UniProtKB/TrEMBL annotation:
SUPFAM superfamilies: Cytochrome P450
Gene Ontology molecular function: any one: monooxygenase activity
Name the record gives this protein: Cytochrome P450
Family: Belongs to the cytochrome P450 family.
Family annotation (Pfam families): p450 (PF00067)
InterPro entries on file: Cyt_P450, Cyt_P450_E_grp-I, Cyt_P450_sf, Cytochrome_P450_fung
UniProt cofactor(s): heme
């Protein structure tokens, strides 16, 4: 959110309309927070935690688009390539939650289900815990947006990182590179609410 303050503000405005400025979202609020869902979907698309699916081995010869895949061949799904396909996601390296909106300004209906989150896998080998992970990631993201403003550190004169690769450390698991930011409670009441929950 540090790099996308307009997205953060729009998401927070939606949260304030539904839960007020001093509350935390519940799972029951999810259907009334379509922009939060769009941000979540874009977060999961933009930089998946796992760039590749688990490996599989073919149990018999198969042909895919005229290419023979012999029995015993190691097959690895390339999640990264799927999620940056320009035919499906124009300007795929840019963070754009609006790509999940219709022209009428509503969340596309096919993007409201956990099955649309390809970061959890695809086909018969999809993550068995995807519903739990989906709910947990959505809830944490929505609560952070409801509770805090995430901004550049005061006095941080650094330019926005030009290359996406500079923002993340890629290996078996992808995670954010160290960065400075300022995280402040949105209101004194939300700070008190968070303090009491600990």
């Amino acid at each position: 959110m540090r790099e996308h303050p307009g997205v953060q503000r729009r998401a927070q405005d939606g949260l304030t309309r539904i839960i007020g400025a001093n509350g935390l979202p519940e799972f029951s609020d999810q259907a009334n927070l379509p922009y939060i869902q769009a941000v979540y979907l874009e977060v999961m698309r933009w930089i998946p935690v796992l760039l590749f699916s688990l490996t599989h081995t073919t149990t018999q010869d198969d042909v895919l688009q005229g290419l023979l895949i012999p029995k015993g061949c190691l097959v690895i799904g390339n999640t990264w390539a799927i999620l940056i396909n320009e035919d499906t996601y124009p300007d795929p390296r840019s963070f754009k939650p609006d790509r999940f909106w219709t022209l009428e300004g509503e969340l596309m209906s096919e993007n409201t289900d956990v099955r649309s989150v390809l970061a959890y896998g695809y086909g018969r080998r999809v993550c068995t815990s995807r519903h739990f992970a989906d709910a947990l990631v959505w809830k944490v993201m929505a609560c952070v947006l409801a509770s805090f403003d995430v901004e550049r550190s005061k006095g941080d004169e650094l330019e926005a990182l030009e290359q996406l690769e500079d923002m993340f450390i890629q290996g078996l698991i992808v995670y954010a590179a160290p960065f400075k930011c300022s995280i402040t409670p949105r209101t004194p009441a939300i700070a008190e609410l968070i303090y009491r929950q600990n």
